[in-house]
Design goal:
Layout (H helix, E strand, L loop, with lengths): L3 H10 L1 E4 L5 H17 L10 E3 L10 E5 L6 H8 L2 H10 L3 E9 L9 E4 L1 H4 L7 E7 L10 E3 L12 E2 L2 E2 L16 E3 L6 E5 L4 E3 L10 E8 L17 H11 E3 L26 H7 L10
Antiparallel strand pairs: 1-11, 2-3, 3-4, 4-13, 4-14, 5-12, 6-11, 6-13, 7-10, 7-12, 8-9
Length: about 300
Amino acid sequence: MLSDTQKAFYDENGYLMVENAVTPDQLAELRRITYDLIEQSRTLTETNDVFELDQGHTADNPRLTRIKLPHKRHPYFWEILSNSGVTEVLTDLLGPDALIQTSKLNTKAPGGGAAVEWHQDWAFYPHTNDSMLAFGLMLEDVDAANGPLQVIPGTHKGPILSHHANGVFCGAIDPDDPLFEADKAVTLTGKAGNMTVHHARVLHGSAPNLSDRNRMILFYECHAADAWPLLGAPSYIHQLGQRALWDDLQDRLITGKLCLTPRIEIVPVSIPLPPAPDASSIFKSQQSGGAKSAFAKA
């Protein structure tokens, strides 16, 4: 699906915009399922295993930060990842054998939906190599007003900046870090059906949603099958026994086959310990860990 020019751009810059990654019919079905899920959240009064509520959430005005692990909430989310244009981009960039790391559907409610402070995904889950990326499939149009993703090109080739504050892993960099060059940020807006791709080491973040519309982006975080996790990341897999881990790996296989010979490369690594007081999500880690906001000072 990707041209040689697009692949070269991704290699050099660490991000990419792919237009019309899904068909109009696929997009319509994804939106239908998503709005059905949002409807189910109306009766909730606190965050649970499926929905992370935003401030001001009520039955009359459902406000969500995200829907957790959408590929486990409805089979169509897995179908899109494993059998669509998204899959073609995946194999173009990661090769024939790939697994899902996690998924999330960030709904970012209108009128102030939470910012995601600047960070590198790699800081959360270092592996034996960095053949890891995240797709951001836009389910609604994304413009400058509703909190679009921002990336800093080329940072996937640089260091892993500190994501610690107050002695804990807060899941965000210090905006005063001299290596953080905010003036180089690129804002990724686009039409529903378009998809962003960013490398796990690229610095990225997103401002609050100040529009009157949801900003709905379906994120799939994936890695090559020969990238194996390092101990210490905030992942459920460290709680699994050997048999359960094997079963889990098979459940997460998107394309190709599993690899039992990890590829080990020299990549910058920092273990995300100790955890923030509440490490249940990136939002909670950044809040409870005392992360300094780059967007509040802007």
